[in-house]
Design brief:
Layout: E1 35-42, H1 61-73, E2 80-81, E3 90-99, H2 106-116, E4 121-128, E5 141-149, E6 163-164, H3 171-179, E7 183-186, E8 201-212, E9 215-222, H4 229-241, H5 247-256, E10 271-277, H6 292-295
Parallel strand pairs: 3-10, 5-6
Antiparallel strand pairs: 1-3, 1-4, 2-3, 5-9, 5-10, 7-8, 8-9
Helix pairs in contact: 1-2, 3-4, 3-5
Length: 298
């Protein structure tokens, strides 16, 4: 059994390669019952969120992935993800785990699964990991990135990949407001009406806004997120950035714990689950900066 203490950190996402420079995934079967971790990328605009909805005839990422895994395994495969993204939200580095039911190879779990997936979902890597690894509960932080295209004219080629926002933005004021979120708070003012979590308290370790050319990017890292939390925060940061509301107003909204007082929810198009952090002992590959529309990397 692979445990956190007896395996080394892979030097690249191609764990299990016959040679690091060959880009050939190992075809050697792993033991049946081995827990497998994998990084999934997807265009959320084509799906009704991550979570399977068996009682509704709508496409979801989880159902598409599990159908492809089942075709490779020959039996059903159940996945667990790090964070369930909503309808229209993208995944640059969604992490999942599943238990290999039959003993396939890493090559099969990457290349074989990708052959059965729609072009809007891809497995970037898969690797055997500790039986105690859990994609959701082993995570120590999740990083979301919201991308705004801040131009007078809406871009055609980036449709569905960013949120277009034509008004001028004062990033200094937005960052002043964003800093108020750092630390542990009750984020009820920025949760969805359909609140289901046991507690509205979350710890935000970082939140900042920066510009890359015509793109304005909101980065936020926390131990967890409430439903619609990032999109509601971005919506309120935008009205601060346009001077429609003040930084003091933003502070009052956070303290009020009243969702009805905050600004409108930002669209899902520009939101990405960009990275999930785990203890180094699990040896998961590092995630490059993303998404590719910003960094040019996958």
């Amino acid at each position: 059994m692979v445990t956190p203490g007896n395996r080394q950190r892979p030097e690249s996402c191609y764990f299990g390669l016959r040679g690091r420079k060959s880009l050939r995934l190992s075809a050697q079967p792993i033991a049946a019952g081995t827990r497998v971790a994998a990084r999934i990328e997807y265009h959320g605009g084509h799906y009704h969120g991550w979570q399977a909805q068996p009682n509704h005839s709508v496409p979801t990422i989880q159902e598409s992935l599990e159908q492809a895994l089942a075709l490779v395994a020959g039996v059903p495969v159940i996945t667990t993800c790090a964070g369930r993204t909503d309808t229209g939200v993208h995944g640059f580095s969604q992490i999942v785990h599943f238990d290999d039911p039959v003993g396939r190879s890493i090559k099969a779990w990457v290349m074989g699964v990708n052959r059965h997936l729609p072009e809007t979902i891809r497995v970037h890597w898969a690797l055997p990991t500790s039986s105690v690894f859990h994609a959701r509960f082993s995570a120590i932080a999740r990083h979301y990135r919201y991308i705004l295209c801040n131009t007078p004219i809406e871009p055609a080629a980036l449709h569905g990949l960013v949120t277009w926002y034509r008004h001028s933005l004062d990033l200094a004021k937005m960052n002043d407001a964003a800093r108020r979120l750092v630390g542990e708070h009750d984020f009820s003012a920025f949760r969805a009406a359909s609140f289901q979590a046991n507690s509205p308290h979350r710890f935000v370790s970082d939140c900042h806004v920066h510009r890359r050319g015509d793109l304005v990017i909101v980065d936020i890292t926390a131990n967890g997120f409430l439903h619609h939390m990032v999109r509601n925060i971005v919506g309120s940061l935008l009205v601060v950035g346009t001077a429609t509301r003040s930084v003091e107003w933003f502070d009052q909204i956070l303290a009020s714990r009243d969702r009805t007082l905050a600004a409108e929810t930002a669209p899902p198009d520009g939101l990405y689950l960009a990275r999930v952090d785990y203890p180094k002992s699990f040896g998961l590959p590092q995630t490059p900066e993303g998404p590719a529309v910003v960094s040019g990397r996958l």
